[in-house]
Design goal:
This protein has 246 residues and is an alpha/beta fold. Helix content is 35%, strand content 17%. Bound molecules: fructose -6-phosphate (F6R).
């Protein structure tokens, strides 16, 4: 695993955006695995700036998002489809037909997950997967568990995730209790992975996930087994990790 430690969130975002840019320039018809959440917002803003300057062209690029709340429509401001449209897709020249997010409106979980697996398969897998890191070590919505979940599946969100995500909803009761998420196997099959971390709140879990034992109780720890992972973070998020490795 390679680590890039940036002095702050802005510079960490620029580094992540640089890696995505390189991917899109080298392989314009690549498949990007994308994440939502607070962390990649700065990365997406940077990509938009470079697109506006004429440095990037997403016209042939495809994207497959990690997850979606079950029950939310694309028009729901809290849905991950809405997030992707407003934070990235509406501002670049990606063809929305080439962007995929699990279908939150499909209430038949088995059908929704099977359809998403087929989308991932039909695209030949993911070239570059972007990840954020949950405070409990989750990636996508793969929550701490007794085994690594392999394929796209429906999860019951943990209390800590519901509490963390409540900041985006009017009340905590409005946070959906279930979500569809890409599984660990699909994430691990990505040819390259960039995980972005920011802020001191992530410092402990970064250390645990990347220097601790590989266990489904810390889902991100499985990334230690991938042969092309780049951890991009600011000094605050990497503080505990850096203490151990230096
Ligand atoms: C989002 C996702 C989640 C987030 C994680 C960190 O698509 O899959 O795993 O990456 O919850 O969220 P933030 O970036 O808000 O701290």
């Amino acid at each position: 695993m390679r680590t890039y430690c940036a002095k702050d969130y802005y510079h960490a975002s620029r580094m992540a955006a640089n890696i995505i840019s390189a991917q899109v320039i080298m392989k314009p018809d690549c498949v990007l695995g994308l994440a939502t959440g607070s962390t990649p917002i700065g990365t997406y803003e940077q990509l938009i700036r470079w697109y506006e300057k004429g440095d990037l062209d997403f016209s042939e690029t495809h994207s497959i998002n990690l997850d979606e709340y079950k029950g939310l429509t694309a028009e729901d401001e809290q849905s991950y489809r809405y997030f992707m449209n407003t934070h990235l897709f509406d501002h670049i020249n990606i063809d929305k037909k080439n962007t995929f997010v699990p279908d939150g409106t499909e209430l038949d979980s088995e059908k929704a997950c099977r359809a998403y697996e087929e989308i991932i398969r039909a695209h030949g897998g993911i070239d570059l997967q972007i990840l954020g890191l949950g405070h409990n070590g989750h990636i996508g919505f793969n929550e701490p568990d007794s085994a690594f979940a392999k394929e796209t599946h429906c999860v019951k969100l943990s209390e800590s995730t519901i509490t963390a995500n409540a900041r985006f909803f009017a009340t905590i009761d409005d946070v959906p209790k279930e979500a569809y998420t890409m599984g660990i196997k699909s994430i691990m099959q990505a040819r390259k992975i960039v995980i972005i971390v920011s802020g001191e709140g992530k410092a402990e879990i970064v250390k645990k996930a990347f220097l601790g034992p590989i266990t489904p109780e810390v889902p991100a720890s499985v990334l230690q087994l991938h042969n092309d992972v780049i951890l991009v973070g600011d000094e605050a998020a990497l503080a505990e990790y850096n203490k151990e490795v230096q």
